[in-house]
Amino acid sequence: xxxxxxxxxxxxxxxxxxxxxxxxxxxxxxxxxxxxxxxxxxxxxxxxxxxxxxxxxxxxxxxxxxxxxxxxxxxxxxxxxxxxxxxxxx
Length: 90
What we know:
CATH architecture: 2-Layer Sandwich
Strand order of the largest sheet: 1-2-3
CATH class: Alpha Beta
Radius of gyration: 13 Å
């Protein structure tokens, strides 16, 4: 379940945090998350082993995004996703 998104994430996604908060990761709009990233979240949650996801392209709402994701699990069992927005590469 998504418990937070920072202000920069809202700005990059051109969205409001209310769309994310309280939702399961599998319930997020496909324009903001890929199946590959969802699978990575489940792996990191299950194993506790940090993981990098290669650059992923997201297309939706007339926007194209490229992101490099890094995931890790906190001691509280929460999974954190940090991403670099690579839109300047397009």
